[in-house]
Structures are given as structure tokens and as C-alpha cells.
Specification:
Blueprint (H helix, E strand, L loop, with lengths): L12 H8 L13 E7 L8 H8 L7 E8 L5 H15 L8 E8 L12 E6 L20 H30 E13 L14 H13 L4 H7 L9 H9 L1 H4 L2 E12 L2 H12 L3 H35 L6 H19 L6 E11 L3
Parallel strand pairs: 1-2, 1-4, 2-3, 4-5
Antiparallel strand pairs: 5-7, 6-7
Helix pairs in contact: 2-3, 4-7, 5-11, 9-10, 10-11
Length: about 350
């Protein structure tokens, strides 16, 4: 999915934290002279680098590796290319010798074949497996309540997500060699009804949007379109059901499947700053603003492009006020967060999986 140009890399610390939790799942390749790795849904590249360093560090001396970076054509490939170029020196010496690296950028949908069959040793997917190939149709009559809408939306997204994840895993099964691996993190719902709930941190943004409605900077029709975000949020159980589908199970052996609750990395620093501030109101407010800004910045970097697209549906395709609208929304959301949501602990559930491509 497309992310805001130049905004995602510096505002993706939540996704970075989720990726770090999966590093121990990555295979080692001490006897592989030629390795091919693909990062599906790589965005602007910052969260690709640590995993690639870990993998490349396991290669033997003088090995070579092909690194594919895939995302939709709407992705910011300029920033991606700059990120890769800046990190190539470190990647090429990750194992302590001189590696020969070949990198390629692949602007295409992951709902179609991305590379030639049987050519990939390792696939990585840190944020993309929840995205849908299309937005499901929602049919509600005029008397539907917000609760009715939420239930209908959740069912539609879950159904579409199940079908799409099957499709994606079958496609990846064609590209990844027998014996190769796919390692992924999938953001979603708590694994059990008794599990601690997550919190995306969207409350300050929602409050700011409602202020925008009051001020005439947005209307309820536009805000309702924002709820049509084309992604599912499966639980561990829902992911397991996909893996048990015959078309998936015949391709993939499940080596690891686990749910983890990942806390926003800014939270710990925020709590330390509050303790250090003591009763100093100014320092408390400064700490709170830094934390809320990190949370809001991440949400806008990941979702802002979609909101602008929805606004253009009502304001016209030539409307060019999207970036200014997002900047104003960001400041309003930070103010709302500082005033009302200072105790909001942002945390998300991720399902981690390591799949091995079966032979035959």
C-alpha cells in the first residue's frame, strides 16, 4: 500500500518494533553461495534493513545475494531507492566479508505473481498481509446504527481477508523454492477473548476529525468513507484457519505461529520522562506531546494517503489541499491527545508466522 511520501520511514517506529520481534525467526544460510530474498510490501525501506542485515550476516564469505523490494506502484519508490542506496555499504559487509549484492525495485501488486516461479529462498512480509485486494461492498439501510455498521464492516473485512490471505500465500508458494521460507508479521485482533486488548492510538485523531466537522473542514460523509480502510485485522485463530485451507496447507509447513502484544516503542521513554519530570507541569506536558506526536505521526504516515484519496472522491480529483489538511489534522490531534489521552498506552497484537515451502 502507498504511504505518504518521505513520511513513513521516520514515522514507522511501531512497525519497526513489530519487525524486531521476528528477527529470531529468520533462517541462516551458512552454506548458501547465492541467496534471493524478497521483501513484500516494503514501503520506503527503513524496516527492511535490520532483517536483511541479519540474513546476510549468515552467508559464507564471498557469497552473492539478490534483494527484491516489492510494493504497489503508488509507493514512494524514490525514498525507497535512496534508503537502499544509503544502506548498501553496510549490507554488503554484513557477514564481515565482501558480499556481491543485486537489488531490484518491483512496483506491482502482491495479489499477482511478483517474480518468476521457484526463484526465492526467503520472503519477508512485515505489514502487508492484512491489506485487501479490493474494498468489500457494505450494504446497510438508512436505519442502521453505528453498531450495526461496525458489525457488518467487521464481518465483510474478515471474509475478504480470509480469501485474500489464501490467495497471497498461494502466490508466494509459487515464487518461493521448495525448502524456502516465508516469515511474516500480521497485525490484528487479540488471540483469545481473555487476552489484553490492543489500542491503535487512533482516539486523538478521531477527536480531531470531529473538531474538523464542527469547523467545516470535513463532513460526516467524508469521515464515514475513512472507515472503509481496505484491510482486515485477523486474530491468530483466523490466520490458523487460512493455513489449514487445503490450497495453503499443501504448499506450506507451519514452523512457527505465535501472537505477541507489541507496545509502541515511544511508551517506555514517555513513562521515564514523566518520572523524571516529577511535579514539573511544563516537563510533563513536553513529554506527553513527544509521545502523542510519535503516535499520531505513525497513524498519519500509514493512513493519511487513504484519507486524502477519500476526500478527493467528494472534493474532486484535482483537489490539492491534502497535505495541508493532514498537517492541520496532525496538530489538532496532538493537542487533543495532550489534553485528553495522556494515559493512552498504544499496543498492537501481531501474529508471527514462519512457513516452510513443502517439496513437490
Amino acid at each position: 500500500m502507498a504511504m505518504r511520501e518521505k513520511e513513513y520511514n521516520p514515522n514507522s517506529s511501531m512497525q519497526h518494533a513489530a519487525m524486531l520481534q521476528a528477527l529470531d525467526l529468520l533462517p541462516s544460510y551458512p552454506t548458501t553461495d547465492r541467496l534471493t530474498v524478497i521483501d513484500y510490501g516494503c514501503s520506503q525501506g527503513a524496516n527492511s534493513i535490520p532483517a536483511l542485515k541479519r540474513v546476510l550476516s549468515s552467508l559464507p564469505e564471498n557469497a552473492s545475494a539478490t534483494l527484491h523490494f516489492e510494493d504497489t506502484p503508488q509507493n514512494d519508490f524514490t525514498t525507497l531507492a535512496q534508503t537502499i542506496d544509503a544502506n548498501l555499504p553496510a549490507l554488503s559487509t554484513a557477514n564481515g566479508s565482501s558480499l556481491t549484492l543485486y537489488s531490484s525495485l518491483l512496483p506491482t501488486s502482491f495479489f499477482r505473481p511478483v517474480v518468476a516461479p521457484g526463484t526465492v529462498d526467503l520472503g519477508l512480509a512485515w505489514s502487508c498481509l492484512t491489506y485487501l485486494s479490493h474494498q468489500p461492498e457494505l450494504s446497510l439501510d438508512a436505519t442502521a446504527t453505528p453498531a450495526d455498521f461496525a458489525i457488518t464492516r467487521a464481518k465483510a473485512l474478515a471474509s475478504a481477508g480470509h480469501k485474500d490471505l489464501i490467495q497471497v500465500l498461494v502466490l508466494r508458494g509459487a515464487e518461493i523454492k521448495p525448502g524456502g521460507h516465508l516469515v511474516a508479521a500480521i497485525g490484528g485482533q487479540p488471540p483469545t477473548p481473555d487476552s489484553e486488548t490492543g489500542d491503535t492510538g487512533v482516539a486523538p485523531v478521531t477527536a480531531a476529525m470531529m473538531k474538523f466537522v464542527v469547523r467545516g473542514k470535513a463532513n460526516m460523509q467524508e469521515l464515514s468513507r475513512f472507515a472503509l480502510w481496505p484491510a482486515s485485522d485477523p486474530s491468530l485463530g483466523e490466520v490458523r484457519k487460512v493455513l489449514e485451507e487445503p490450497s495453503v496447507a499443501e504448499l506450506w509447513e507451519v514452523e512457527h505461529l505465535e501472537a505477541k502484544l507489541v507496545v509502541h516503542p515511544a511508551w517506555e521513554g514517555y513513562r521515564i520522562a514523566l518520572d523524571e519530570a516529577g511535579g514539573d507541569g511544563d516537563r510533563v506536558r513536553e513529554a506527553r506531546e513527544r509521545y502523542i506526536r510519535a503516535v499520531v505521526g505513525n497513524l498519519l504516515a500509514a493512513s493519511g494517503w487513504f484519507w486524502v484519496e477519500k476526500l478527493k472522491e467528494t472534493r474532486g480529483r484535482d483537489w490539492d489541499g491534502g497535505e495541508a489538511w493532514l498537517r492541520e489534522l496532525e496538530e489538532e490531534a496532538v493537542m487533543e491527545g495532550v489534553e485528553k489521552f495522556g494515559e493512552m498506552k498504544v499496543r498492537l497484537w501481531y501474529t508471527y508466522l514462519k512457513l516452510k515451502r513443502r517439496s513437490g
